[in-house]
Amino acid sequence: MTTVAFIGLGAMGAPMASNLIDAGFALRVYNRNAGKAAALAEKGATVCGSPAEAVQGAQFVVSMVADDNATREVMLGANGVMSAAAAGTIIVDSSTNTPAMAREVAAAAKARGAAYLDSPVSGSIAQARGRELVFMVGGDAAAFDKTQPLYKAMGRMTTRMGESGAGATIKLINNMLSGTVNTAIAEAMSVAEAAGLDPDATFAVLNEGAAASRLTRTKMEKIRKRDFSPQFQLALMEKDLRYFLALAQEVDRPTPVASIVRSQMQAARRSDYGGLDVAAIFLQVTGERPKS
Q1: Among 10, 17, 26, 5, which Cα is nearest to 154's?
Q2: Largest CA distance in the chain
Q3: Do 31 and 61 fall into the same domain?
Q4: Are residues 106 and 214 both part of a single domain?
Q5: Of the listed 146, 171, 239, 291, which one is catalytic?
Q6: Comparing C-alpha atoms, which of 240, 232, 234, 277 is closest to residue 97?
């Protein structure tokens, strides 16, 4: 049986890990808050006290943590993956990191004879549970080929974008578009409500129009219901936009629209909406307070 070390059991990581168990992989799991590992332990996962412990005996590592800082800790820290990974280990990092962070970890993995694939995902909690994630991957082609059974156990589509950092790059571009569309949806719904349009008719028409998408269907519905329970936290979107702007500056490309959207997201986070769904940008746009 193939053994996988899984690092990070948050809203996305936990269902991804569960799907790996269901697909027949043996899991060794680590999460900073060990209580989040209880459900996986009941399914047979071995709970470990550090990333270094989790990686012992594992042929693959999957990581799903919040940002560059968390990735640096779990990958390069004193008790991180790189301190214990054996030669030949393949590391699948589904965190949303900067391309520079991905390349740094890839270099550390190569020095140990391991392979690192930056493999961020498109999709939120529902897609993670339903094995419908889309993986965008940067890194070694041979390691990518060997990892296909893991990707297939967790998602519906996997595309290798190029060498290390390419997966992280396209993920930031993807999330810039997502954040921009979320903000545009919030503005559209604000004007529609203020103009007194029928909510059901508005929803029906806009979701048959040229701009219709999964985001219009899901985020308009959350705004209509004032349900801002997180599928993807606003604070994480704001972080991703910040990373995108840093990337755009690095490659010397103007991004005025993304800059405005990030400012809106930053203001929303500073208004304590960061733990809500990204659709809560509506609250920042309208000045409406969330229901308690």
Answers
A1: 17
A2: 63
A3: yes
A4: no
A5: 171
A6: 240
Q: pLDDT category, 292, cuts 50, 70, 90?
A: low
Q: Which of 162, 177, 192 is the last residue of a domain?
A: 162
| pTM for the whole structure | 0.95
Backbone angles phi, psi at 137, to 5 degrees: -125, 135
Is 36 considered catalytic here?
no
**Backbone angles phi and psi of 249, in degrees to 5:** -65, -40
Q: How many CB atoms lie within 10 A of CB 156?
A: 14
CATH no. for residue 74? 3.40.50.720
In order of 74, 76, 115, 231, the CA distances from 82 in angstroms are 9, 6, 11, 31
CATH classification at residue 221:
1.10.1040.10
Q: Which of 162, 197, 226 is the last residue of a domain?
A: 162
CA distance 170 to 161: 8
Tokens 């799991």 correspond to what residue? Answer: 29
Q: What DSSP element (H or E) covers 175?
A: helix 166-194
Phi first, then psi: what are they for 92, rounded to 5°?
-110, 105
CB of 95 closer than 8 Å to CB of 61: no
Give 3-22 pLDDT, tens digit per residue. 999 999 999 999 999 999 99
Number of structural domains found in the chain:
2
Q: Are residues 157 and 25 in the same domain?
A: yes
Both 41 and 150 in a single domain?
yes
291 domain residue, yes or no: no
8 A C-beta contact, residue 45 and residue 37 = yes
Please spell the DSSP secondary structure of 20-43, one letter per residue: HHHTT-EEEEE-SSGGGGHHHHHT
Composition of the chain by helix, strand, coil, percent to 5: 55, 15, 30
Q: List the domain range (segments joined by +) for residue 209.
A: 169-286
pLDDT digits (tens, 9 = 90+) for 197-220: 999 999 999 999 999 999 999 999
